[in-house]
Design brief:
heterodimer, A: alpha+beta, Uridine Diphospho-n-acetylenolpyruvylglucosamine Reductase, domain 2, Uridine Diphospho-n-acetylenolpyruvylglucosamine Reductase, domain 3, Enolase-like, domain 1, four-stranded antiparallel sheet, globular, B: alpha+beta, 5 helices, 5 strands
Chain lengths: 262, 159
């Protein structure tokens, strides 16, 4: 890993100020992707700005209809939070399926979303759930947030502060994980608000996406008897782990499994 | 790049050092402090040989900077035993042949204690699930699981 200047600001304003006065800075949260990438010399920031000492970024606030999760809340904390799990069943299960216990201790929900790994678990959940990503300057609607492979609508000097999730009637997530990395070869998240159902997919394409055909069908008819291959294999990844056709089929299979379980 | 000053408590000893910001905890432990019980296996956050305890929980020391741990506390495998007396989990690994070559063992024991701190009576399934971040290439998992079951029992009994 190349060397860098290290900063540990105690406020968002201070963090942004350091960012704007550095050559090629990066914000550091749990570091579970950033540090690994730096060790491989895939990136070499001039300055690392550790945001973990900024107060109030790891709070969870639950009101009647929604949950606000602080960006620095770890996957582990989320996986054992009974209050969150009683409001949104299966969110803890998703968190508990990321990486391994030591990675979940460090990794954060905000970091995962900001990184926008196309095979990560949170992006599918965030897309399926009626949610907003709050930053130091604005609130971004979930469907606008993920713009491409490892790309988001975030500006360079913008920090996610929290995620607001409207509590659904039903939520579930199921992935077919790569056995070594635990990343999703395909992951499917389904959220239901009254008759409004959204199916979101990770792992299958260059960016997480909403499966429109499945979402429309399930909004009309919430049953496991779904139409097959509504997601075209032409839009899906093909690699040593799975062909595009296999991924298209997995989307249908995982969707059916979720529906049969709920 | 400027060196930074950090204070860190490791195995109940306070250290105040000037370090390069890109110093990983594993390198600090092994190269600067000579605490070579923590092993560097894959160096990519997969194998768990480098695990240490932070806030009673296992983390991977190959994937965290010392700079991130300023004013915080770490326990390594060297910090577990009480003078000449092994920690119950260490003892259980010895009694149950919970190691072959021993390379993964410090991480396995740290992980086992981290599990105990979350769940003091884990089932076999819970132990196996918790070890997903620890790899043993001697394929010795049977005895590792057995060691953790007995080690957890000893820890419960010794309070």
């Amino acid at each position: 890993m190349y060397n860098f200047n290290f900063h540990s600001p105690s406020s968002l304003d201070e963090a942004i100020n350091i960012y704007n006065n550095s050559d090629d800075p990066k914000f550091l949260a749990g570091g579970m992707t950033l540090l690994a990438s730096m060790k491989q010399r895939l990136i070499a920031p001039s300055d690392l700005i550790d945001i973990r000492n900024i107060k109030n970024l790891s709070e969870v606030i639950i009101d009647g209809e929604s949950i606000k999760i602080g960006a620095l809340y770890s996957h582990h904390s989320l996986s054992i939070n009974e209050d969150i799990n009683s409001k949104i069943k299966n969110l803890a299960k998703l968190a508990n399926g990321i990486g391994d216990p030591a990675v979940r201790k460090m990794g954060t929900i905000g970091g995962s979303i900001a990184n926008s790994d196309p095979a990560a678990d949170w992006p599918a959940a965030i897309l399926a759930l009626n949610s907003n990503i709050n930053t130091n300057i604005r609130s971004i609607k979930n469907i606008d947030f993920f713009t491409g492979m490892f790309e988001t609508l975030l500006a360079d000097d913008e920090i996610i502060t929290s995620i607001d999730i409207k509590i659904p009637d039903l939520f579930d997530y199921k992935k077919f994980p790569n056995p070594a990395s635990r990343y999703a070869i395909v992951g499917v998240a389904i959220a239901k608000y009254n008759n409004d159902v959204t199916v979101a997919v990770s792992g299958a394409s260059h960016t997480p996406f909403i499966a429109k055909g499945l979402s429309e069908f399930l909004s009309e008819n919430f049953s496991s008897d779904i139409p097959k291959n509504t997601v075209s294999k032409d839009d899906l990844n093909e690699d040593i782990h799975a062909s595009a056709e296999y991924r298209a089929n997995l989307i249908d299979v995982l969707t059916q499994q979720i529906l049969k379980n709920n | 790049m400027n060196e930074i000053s950090v204070q860190i408590k490791i195995n109940n000893n306070n250290y105040e050092r000037n370090i390069k910001p890109n110093t990983l905890l594993i390198d600090f432990l092994r190269d600067d402090l000579g605490l070579t019980g923590t092993h560097s296996g894959c160096d990519t956050s997969q194998c768990g040989a480098c695990m240490v305890l932070h806030n009673n929980s296992a983390i991977k020391s190959c994937s965290i900077l010392v700079a991130q741990l300023n004013n915080q506390e770490i326990t390594t495998i060297e910090g577990l035993q009480d003078k000449d007396k092994l920690h119950p989990m260490q003892n259980s690994f010895r009694n149950n042949h919970g190691l072959q070559c021993g390379f993964c063992t410090p991480g396995m024991i740290i992980s086992a204690i981290s599990l105990f701190n979350e769940n003091n009576d884990p089932t076999e399934d819970e132990i196996r699930k918790y070890l997903e971040g620890n790899m043993c290439r001697c394929t010795g998992y049977q005895n590792i699981v057995k060691s953790i079951e007995e080690g957890a029992k000893d820890m419960r009994e010794k309070g």
